[in-house]
Amino acid sequence: MKKKIRKIGMLSSIALMICLGVTGCYPDGKVSLEEKKETDSNQINIDENASHIEGKLDEGLFVNAQTDIKSDADWHDNNVILKSWDVDKVSNVFGNGRNISENKTMPNMHNDNLNDNYIYWDDGSSIVIQNGNLQYNTKTELEYSYLGYLYGTRPYLTDETTEKFPETEISGIDKEAAIEQVKSILDEIGVEVSKPRVYSLTYEKLEENTDYSQTDPNGNAPHQWTKEDAAYAIVFKGTIDTLPITEVGYRSGPAAGERIVGIVGKQGLIAFHALNIYELETENELSDEILTTQTVLENIQQKFRNIMITDKVEIEKINLEYVPVLKNVEKGEYELKPMFVCMARQNIEHSTDKEDNGLIGDSSIFPIIFDAQTGMEIQIGASCIL
């Protein structure tokens, strides 16, 4: 069923000069702000199919965003549960004929009616199997923590990750074979995904992002990287009926977005995590129509209207995605609702301790999420939809 698009509310009296990612004016397909100015400042003409939007929303507030918005697709309010796994099948997929040294079952910490499985192989590899979650780690991952370097302290990846680990060729590893290895695992365990993103954890980039003066709580220094340690991170976005499920989510607890990632090095699969994976129970028609991108921009503008912005805020991504909404944590019941997931970056300058009082900059990236039907902002860190 094709969903209609609607526009809510009156346009702001403050001009939104928007530059759309269309062809014709510059080699990169962008149109200058001066050329897009309208004589009537209350008129905002946005191509809802544009893949890029650029312009000034307000003083200190800008949009320079890649967009992935399939507003006319067949979105639903989905009832879902955390995916249950065939433990024997998962064990065989990851075990690959190795000897199991230990296999134990323990009650789930959130639900006594569910069990978590822990499987250990004799080479030091292990997997944790929980409803919605698979965490496979080799001894190499446990010692080197590739995923720690990739994700840092965030539960999701951002453009900063691309800046830290850009996709480049790694000698000695077939990138396409690495992608296929991770994708084949997902096919075997029944997880629907879209096309992957690839991050190259090269020796040079791992060295650059390692502070050898730091130690862990046990006093151990970081692993000393070599060129043999280079690896690809293959990251997928989960889907339902080909429509994307967010990686961001609106909290870090039991209603986070999905995380699907495999680390592949010269020795093969190093780690594989599939977290917060949902399976469809029922589909419900939307109670209202999907908002326009224009309305989302107005909502962003309104959010910051009463805030004095001292450091530039720039919206870098605007995606329409399914976001999990917790219904019953004990039963593992959720809704997946279409929402606009916007990623914003703020570059914060502050003084150094140097005599010249120079400025250094820190970058903060944060999500802004709006319900795609009501336009209400989902408060980050909240335990429910507000």
Automatic annotation (TrEMBL):
It comes from Agathobacter rectalis. This is Uncharacterized protein.
